[in-house]
């Protein structure tokens, strides 16, 4: 019988690719979703936090939980209500699952939860962060701290819990790269703000393989910086994208004040600098990156 994996947020960018890789390895995959959907090869169970409801059968035989659910931080301006949604979407679902696991005595082997490199702060300049660095104090850092505390509810029940603090995910299917690449395709690529801000990144396939490795290897536990090394500046990333696309990059930087006028507080998503080191990945695990260099990662994304 195939090993059963339950994923929250399974229809998103990471969940979609991760599902493909899990099924290729012979896993049986199910989703826990707010809406009943018809997804080929995947059983979808519904849940509702407001009514404390999880559809019958959702947790039956589940060995591994992968928690990816969370409203996109760059999908809308950070109004008070939007901020509440960003936090609740990451914490309430796994809280509901933890309650059900405790009440029903579910024997989960692992919980692998998404987290963010923003744990250390939205804009930390050139400061280098390993996993033992303290949490930041701004909004995204607060979101990430609460996100990890929610996942720890399962750790407190004796479930081996791993939190992957993820940087910018490189994929042509979504996320930041298509947005950055679109103007570059028309010869309009330009760094944002100073262009000197650090961007800690990872190719989506390496990230998904990391989830699987964390799930399968019982030595993994706690928080890991799920990024490649080294990070790149926003200017370098823009230049690499232009080179891979065969387009010029000669426009001046987009001023930071203009981005703040358009996006408000949310502008820190692209203007903030985060230099995050994958210390635990490289020193404590045998994980091997398929795309350790930014150039080959982008070539794979745009030429595949």
From TrEMBL:
Residues 5-225 form the NAD-dependent epimerase/dehydratase domain. It comes from the Bacteria. Residues 254-301 form the DUF1731 domain. Pfam families: DUF1731, Epimerase. Signal peptide: none annotated. PANTHER family: EPIMERASE FAMILY PROTEIN SDR39U1, SUGAR NUCLEOTIDE EPIMERASE RELATED. Belongs to the NAD(P)-dependent epimerase/dehydratase family. SDR39U1 subfamily. This is TIGR01777 family protein.
């Amino acid at each position: 019988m195939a090993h059963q994996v339950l994923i929250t947020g399974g229809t998103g960018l990471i969940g979609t690719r991760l599902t493909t890789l899990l099924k290729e390895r012979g896993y049986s995959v199910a989703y826990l979703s707010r809406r009943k959907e018809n997804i080929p090869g995947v059983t979808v169970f519904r849940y509702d936090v407001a009514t404390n409801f999880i559809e019958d059968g959702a947790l039956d035989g589940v060995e591994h939980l992968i928690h990816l659910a969370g409203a996109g931080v760059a999908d809308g301006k950070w109004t008070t209500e939007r901020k509440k949604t960003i936090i609740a979407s990451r914490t309430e679902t796994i809280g509901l699952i933890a309650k059900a696991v405790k009440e029903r005595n579910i024997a989960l082997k692992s919980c692998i939860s998404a987290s963010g490199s923003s744990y250390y702060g939205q804009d930390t300049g050139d400061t280098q962060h390993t996993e033992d660095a303290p949490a930041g104090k701004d909004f995204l850092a607060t979101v990430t701290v609460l996100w990890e505390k929610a996942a720890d509810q399962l750790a407190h029940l004796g479930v081996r819990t791993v939190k992957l603090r993820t940087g910018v995910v490189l994929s042509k299917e979504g996320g930041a790269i298509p947005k950055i690449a679109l103007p570059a395709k028309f010869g309009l690529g330009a760094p944002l703000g100073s262009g000197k801000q650090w961007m800690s990144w990872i190719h989506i396939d390496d990230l998904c393989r990391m989830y699987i490795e964390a799930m399968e290897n019982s030595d993994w536990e706690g928080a890991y910086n799920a990024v490649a090394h080294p990070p790149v500046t926003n200017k370098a990333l823009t230049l690499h994208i232009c080179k891979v696309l065969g387009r010029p990059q000669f426009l001046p930087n987009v001023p930071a004040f203009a981005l703040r006028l358009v996006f408000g507080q949310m502008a820190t998503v692209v203007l903030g600098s985060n230099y995050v080191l994958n210390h635990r990945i490289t020193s404590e695990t045998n994980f091997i990156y398929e795309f350790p260099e930014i150039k080959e990662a982008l070539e794979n994304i745009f030429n595949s």
